[in-house]
Amino acid sequence: MKIITSVKSLRHTIDKFKGSGKTIGFVPTMGFLHEGHASLLRQSGRDVDVTVLSIFVNPLQFGPAEDLKNYPRDIKKDELLAKKENVDIIFYPSVDEIYPTGFLTHVYVDDLSDRLCGKSRPGHFGGVATVVLKLVNMVDPDVMYLGQKDAQQAVIVRKMLQDLNVPVKVKILPTVREADGLAMSSRNSYLSLRERREAIVLYKALNQAKTLIKNGERTAKTIVLGMAKMIQEESQGIIDYIQCVNAQNLSVIDVLKNEVLIVLAVKFGRARLIDNIIVRVNE
Ligand code: AMP
Fold it and tell me: pLDDT of 96-142, one tens digit each?
C-alpha cells in the first residue's frame, strides 16, 4: 500500500497501473474510517484491479460555524483499516495541494444543492461537487463508490458527473449500521452516552414510516408528523428536517407513490446526524 500526498506522484503511479491495463476504483472520504467506508473499499476490491482511497477533510464543504477544525482525524488508524481492506493507494493530500493559492474555480449543481441539507448548510454541496470533480480528475477512476448514507450527496455527484460528461461509473452502496440501527458516521464520535442512546430513534422513526406505508398510508405529511412525534418523545434531538422526496431529483412528494426517499437531519448536541431509507410504494 502506497501513501501519496502529491497530485504529481498520484498521476505518475496511476498512469503506470493504467499503462499495464489495470482498472481503477476510487473511494473518496474524509477519513476517521469505519465499517461504512470499509464496505465501499471491499466492493472496489471485488470489482477492479487497483483501489484508491482518498482521505481529505475538505474545507470548502464546511460553513464558517461548522466543525472543520474539530472534525475527527486518525490517519494511523485509517492506514490500518485501509491495509486490512487491501487498498493499493491512499491519497492523503494537504489543503494546499488541493487548493493552491489563487484557486478560483467552483462547481455548483443548481436546485439539488439548495434542498434538504443545502438549506441549513449553504455552500456545502458546492464544496462537495468541486472537490469530487477535482479528485476524479486526479485519480481518473473507472468506478467511484459512494454511500447511500449521504443520499443527497450521491444524487448531486451523479448529476454533476453526468452534466459535465465525466466518464466514470458510480456505484452507490447501502448504509452500514451499528447493531442497534444507528447509521455509522465519523460524526457519531461527537455523541455523549445519552445522545448515543437516544440517536437510535432516527432509524426507529424511519422504520415506523416504512411500516405505516406498508399498512397503506400514502400522505407524506402524516408520515413526517409521525416521525417527528417519535423523535421528540424519545430524544432531545433537534429536528432540522424530515421529508419524503423523489429519490432521483429530491423534489418534495405529497402523495406517496413509486420509489420514495425518506430523509432526515437531526441535531444531537454537537452532532448533526443524517439518515434515510428508500421505500417502494405498492400501488
Ligand atoms: P465521509 O468520510 O463521511 O465523507 O464519507 C465518505 C463516503 O463513505 C461517502 O460516500 C459516504 O456516503 C460513505 N459512507 C459514510 N458512512 C457510511 C455508512 N454508514 N454506510 C455506507 N457508506 C457510508
Answer: 999 999 999 999 999 999 999 999 999 999 999 999 999 999 999 99
Give residue for cell 466518464.
Answer: 167
Please state the atom number of ligand 1 nearest to the C-alpha of residue 31.
2
Report the alpha-carbon distance of residue 99 to residue 185 in Å, rounded.
26
Angle at 170 between CA 9 and CA 82, to 5 degrees: 50
CATH architecture of 186-281: 2-Layer Sandwich (3.30)
Q: Where are the domains of the chain?
A: 2-173, 186-281
Give the confidence band of 282 by pLDDT, cuts at 50, 70, 90. confident
Give distance in angstroms: CA of 185 to centre of ligand 1: 7
Calculate the CA 196 to chain-centre distance. Answer: 20
Q: Tell me the C-alpha distance between 185 and 31, whole Å.
A: 10
pTM of this structure: 0.98
Which CATH fold would you assign to the domain 2-173? Rossmann fold (3.40.50)
Q: How far is the CA of 157 from the centre of ligand 1 (A)?
A: 13
Choose which residue among 71, 74, 150, 158 to substitute to test ligand 1 binding: the one with the highest number of ligand atoms within 8 A of its C-beta: 150
